[in-house]
Amino acid sequence: PTNTGSGMLEALDPEQRAAASAPRGPVCVLAGAGTGKTRTITHRIAHLIGSGHISAGQVLAVTFTARAAGEMRTRLRALGVHGAQALTFHAAARRQLRYFWPRVVGDRPWDLLDGKLRFVGQAAQRVGLGADAEILRDLATEIEWAKASLVAPDDYPIAAARVQRDTPAPTAQVAEVYRAYEEIKNSARVLDFDDLLLHTTAALEEHDEVAREFRDRYRCFVVDEYQDVTPLQQRLLDAWLGGRDDLTVVGDANQTIYSFGGASPRPLLEFTRRFPDATVVRLERDYRSTPQVVDLANSVIAAARNRPAGSRLRLIGQRPDGPDPRFAEYEDEPSEAAAVAARVRYLLNAGVAASEIAILYRVNAQSEAYERALAEMGVPYLVRGGERFFERREIRQAMAALRTATVERSTDEDLVMVVRRVLAKVGLTEQPPAGGAAKERWDALLALVEVAEELSSTVEGADMSRYVAELEQRAAAQHPPTVEGVTLASLHAAKGLEWDAVFLVGLAEGILPIQHADGDEAAVEEERRLFYVGVTRAREHLWLSWSLSRHPGGRRHRRRSRFLHGLLPEHHSAARLGRARQLRDGTAKPRCRVCGGPLLETMEIKLARCGRCPSNVDEDLLARLKEWRTGRARELRVPPFVVFTDATLVA
Ligand code: ATP
Ligand code: MG
Questions:
Q1: Residue 59 pairs with which residues in a beta bridge?
Q2: Burial class (CB within 10 angstroms; exposed 0-12, middle 13-18, buried 19+) of 388
Q3: Mean pLDDT of all residues in the chain?
Q4: Binding residue positions
Q5: Which of 38, 558, 640, 650 could form a disulfide with 346 if both were Cys (CB 3.0 to 4.6 A apart)?
Q6: Domains in the chain, CATH or no CATH each
Q7: Residues lining ligand 1, CB < 6 A?
């Protein structure tokens, strides 16, 4: 690498540098969001390699989502590091298991199970438990929790009672379903995601020569987002270490958002008890967000209850001032979605890249309204769901079709053309479907075409087999191709990531905190941490919104989220409302909706902008604006303007 020694560490502040340059051995960085934890570990890896302490192939860095792992690889590459593995726990385990399987089991590696709920359904049926789709999902969650917590079927009832799991059936019955599920799955010779970790752990724990070979190869371990480690992942990590202590962990206990799935910040907070001579670093400078966003994040987390010692950090914003976070209340969900989509459109027009904008929500079901609103406005978007791009049905079908095509006689037809032709057979139409799941599938398939385009422009004479090999390599590393567009993601999937503009939507009671958390303090606190994760994703623009009813004309039975309490600026609730009313009456001098500055005299009627901000005002907008101001129209939907942000507050 060109970046050797300590030169690259100049891009770090003194505390970050202390962690990055610590000698090999246990290192722990405990710090809040945006303080540069991920940056510190990538620099540490680069530094250890660059200064000759270790070779890239001996490093194994793990994190929790495929996108976060991809982000780590990108940052490593930018630092001149090639060949260091940065993967999710699952991808790492899967890769190791494939390698060791023939020696440990003596068989062809089992496939990943497809359609887990079907298996859970068969298991429920076998034990005589009538279960609808929702109960099946809850049963699957319980099985996942038990496996991640290293709880066997026999021990499930006691373990579940101890942590007061809210179970979909009596615990003895859930245990029976769990047992049956394992039997059915094993006889089908398939593995679920947790099995990848369980079997890899067992291979290392029970086979000396497997462990020896592994430990000889990997010598330096790094874990990002360590606050969300499960007992199963910890056990795998311990099997990797095999008593060694070359382990760097970074995390933020305030971002623990998977307790429900068995994760716990305890290993992070008790790291020094386990490794008394560990280098411990705390960071408090926030390099990601504007002071306005940082202030809000501090308030959110200051309101948290029962914060463990070691997690009381206050972030100090380092960036220049930016716009104040905006709060907006809407009559109903479609209005909220339309307003957000209009704002997005506005940002795009103002030159913000689509990939720098995210709409984040609590549950995936919320994405639909936003997909529709964005599609209506012609805004490209991508939905981040389970992250498991290569496990998607249409992608597996596509891969099968592409593999078959490599053995057919190939002509000297252009690679991209061949790929398009093959993918047409599995559903890649010329024109994209209007929206929803079909559009998502289409986008996923299109992403495969883009890989072909990328390959043929970078590799001379790349053919089908080279292309398929590339895809297989990416699948093994869980390195999904990027789909360009505005990101729609759940708060869970957004962890570790950042965007210039973030919309946190649906901030209403029953959604965030989610209904079933109500009355359970620990669950409500986890919801609050999710909110904190959401707020801290924004670099600059942050919009927080909610709506009072689900459907237009519905009963206004929703209240804004309790987490907003004390966050809304004073003037927002009273003065701003009054001002919006005056604007509507035409008695106040309107201000530019973009920069807040006074409007040019001649532009007053336009209300939406001052004439200095870059955007086009169309005549239709002005006409509709007039309608709205004179009270003839109740609602004002005028993309790309968000004139109605305040208007709906008036309602
Ligand atoms: P999270 O808890 O959300 O995962 P994090 O602590 O991992 O956050 P990073 O993603 O590493 O934070 O850093 C946040 C942003 O701040 C990134 O864009 C990063 O490049 C930038 N940053 C971090 N440290 C510095 C620094 N010393 N100088 C300049 N920019 C920095
Ligand atoms: Mg990070």
A1: 220
A2: middle
A3: 84
A4: 31-38
A5: 640
A6: 7-94+198-282 (3.40.50.300), 114-187 (1.10.10), 326-386+486-564 (3.40.50.300), 389-476 (no CATH), 570-650 (no CATH)
A7: 12-13, 16, 31, 33-39, 252, 255, 287-288, 496, 498, 536
